[in-house]
């Protein structure tokens, strides 16, 4: 491992540590029961409150820290932005797990599976409220605008989840609809994370809007890769059962691309997806093969590369400290080959 890689790894670990310290402090504002559920979901302790070494990827938090640095600000503005984005992300995960019926996340039971649906939903609500609090308390004259940006992002997250749920009861879903859903459900928060630190720092509009575009492309690329992992990811890395998206007949991007391919494999996949019987291991494996045969996997991989290229091109045109630009670019390039 070369010195640059060691330095980048150390820096990411430091960023994650600062964000975790801030999140733990915010959890202490909650009532004991809600705090326990939130900390369990975040990976800070197990169901009995015993400390663990868990935790998520922290990608959105790191983006927010860097967006503040792009505008010349430090942790005094970057950290509130990072905490808010991580809180909103985990609010959405808590609710999504309930609505999707997912029982596993990060190699253990989801919060609703462990504590019940009401507790998980209330925990998600609490994290959303904390996100607004921490932004409103930021020492910046543009804090109200940042709160407004976060609220608008939450509305788009909800719109994306509404569309995702609606797809489950529809026989036909177009690829354009599926892309728009991903842009709302995943791209919106990534766009917010990539720019909200700059908003708090009262950056020039060209920089804030450019970072928003960068994050939007990055978010769509992230979701495209996530959908690939939902079918072909290794359970020991993703923390979810093998072929999990296919078992639940999720209209993910590779699946819809395959269905719209006009190929015999796409037609067979459509017939299989429209069936009412539970999809067992053999059927799910057959569906995965049909997605690949119909070109759904290759389309998704290519579109993810295109979105990453667009993100990097957008970033290259922005005026910011070169070191910050390189960190953002490295973060984007790190999505290539992501396995969890």
Describe the protein:
This protein has 340 residues and is an all-alpha fold. The chain has one domain (3-333): Farnesyl Diphosphate Synthase (Orthogonal Bundle). It is built from 17 helices and 2 strands. The protein has a two-stranded antiparallel sheet. Strand 1 and strand 2 (108-109) form a beta hairpin. The protein is globular and about 60 Å long. It starts with a helix and ends in a 7-residue tail after the last helix.
List the helices and strands and how they pair.
Elements: H1 3-27, H2 32-42, H3 59-70, H4 75-100, E1 104-105, E2 108-109, H5 111-115, H6 117-136, H7 143-167, H8 175-193, H9 196-200, H10 205-232, H11 235-238, H12 244-247, H13 253-259, H14 264-273, H15 281-293, H16 296-316, H17 322-333
Antiparallel strand pairs: 1-2
């Amino acid at each position: 491992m070369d010195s640059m890689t060691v330095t980048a790894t150390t820096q990411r670990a430091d960023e994650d540590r600062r964000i975790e310290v801030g999140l733990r402090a915010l959890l202490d504002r909650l009532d004991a029961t809600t705090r326990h559920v939130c900390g369990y979901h975040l990976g800070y302790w197990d169901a009995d409150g015993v400390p663990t070494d868990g935790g998520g990827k922290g990608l959105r938090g790191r983006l927010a820290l860097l967006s503040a640095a792009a505008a010349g600000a430090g942790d005094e503005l970057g950290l509130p932005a990072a905490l808010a984005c991580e809180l909103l992300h985990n609010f959405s995960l808590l609710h999504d797990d309930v609505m999707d019926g997912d029982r596993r996340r990060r190699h253990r039971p989801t919060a609703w599976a462990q504590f019940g649906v009401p507790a998980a939903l209330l925990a998600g609500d609490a994290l959303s409220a904390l996100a607004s609090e921490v932004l409103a308390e930021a020492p910046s004259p543009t804090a109200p605008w940042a709160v407004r940006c976060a609220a608008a992002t939450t509305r788009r997250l909800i719109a994306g989840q509404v569309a995702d749920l609606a797809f489950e009861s529809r026989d036909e879903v177009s690829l354009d609809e599926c892309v728009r859903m991903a842009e709302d459900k995943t791209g919106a928060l990534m766009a917010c994370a990539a720019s909200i630190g700059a908003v708090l720092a009262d950056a020039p509009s060209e920089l804030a809007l450019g970072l928003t575009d960068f994050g939007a492309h990055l978010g769509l690329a992230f979701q495209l890769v996530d959908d690939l992992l939902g079918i072909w990811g290794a359970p020991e890395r993703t923390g979810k059962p093998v072929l999990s998206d296919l078992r639940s007949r999720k209209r993910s991007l590779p699946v819809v691309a395959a269905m719209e391919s006009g190929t015999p494999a796409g037609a067979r996949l459509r017939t299989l997806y429209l069936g009412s019987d539970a999809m067992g291991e053999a059927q799910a494996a057959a569906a995965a093969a049909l997605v690949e045969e119909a070109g759904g996997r290759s389309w998704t991989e290519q579109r993810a590369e295109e979105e990453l290229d667009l993100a990097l091109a957008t970033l290259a045109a922005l005026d910011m400290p070169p070191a910050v630009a390189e960190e953002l670019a490295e973060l984007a390039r790190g999505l290539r080959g992501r396995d969890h």
